[in-house]
Amino acid sequence: MPLNGTKVRLREVRESDLPLLLALRNDLDTQGWSQTLPTDYTIVTYKKQYEDDTFSTKRTRARFVIETLDTNEVVGNISYYSLEPRFEVTIGIAIAKNFWSAGLAFDAQETLLHFLFEELGLRVVRLWTTGSNVQAIRLGERSGFRVAARMREAIIRRGKLADNVIMDLLREEYYALHPELEDHLPALEVK
Fold first, then answer.
1. I want to staple 30 with a disulfide (CB 3.0 to 4.6 A). Which of 24, 59, 96, 144 is the partner?
2. What is the pLDDT of residues 70-125, one digit of tens each?
3. Cis, bond preceding 85 (omega within 30 deg of 0)
């Protein structure tokens, strides 16, 4: 079932989406942060991952294609992984460069956050990026994420050292930013 935002729809990945997703994955500008350099994914490896995800019953991760509502054009993907039910998850997003600054990444992120907090009842959502990826940090901050940790000079990006930045958004912070929503889960007592 797709998730609809105001500008985008998050839907299942189809085999026809793989060439664009592969291009995003192999582009250092659009992936933002990577554990797997060099960027050497092939259509064969990406198709295998797609097939494994398609027939997986694991609920610890999901990948969605980001499609515009007005033209049904595929512009990127957004995912969550390392899900700990009712507790935490990490998200990632990649948007084709020609769609940067169009508000699509923000709408996709907000749509996924709504699903994660409202439907899955999570307590915290995290994201990772590099300190040099100013766009990703600003995108996170627009949705209420805060820098939770910074590992200095932990990544080499384009031949330069960069910080690894972990950002997070707590449930209470999300609902404070969205007064139109009511949090129906009890707050956890922190000791």
1. 24
2. 999 999 999 999 999 989 999 999 999 999 999 999 999 999 999 999 999 999 99
3. no
pTM (predicted TM-score): 0.89
pLDDT, position 37: 55
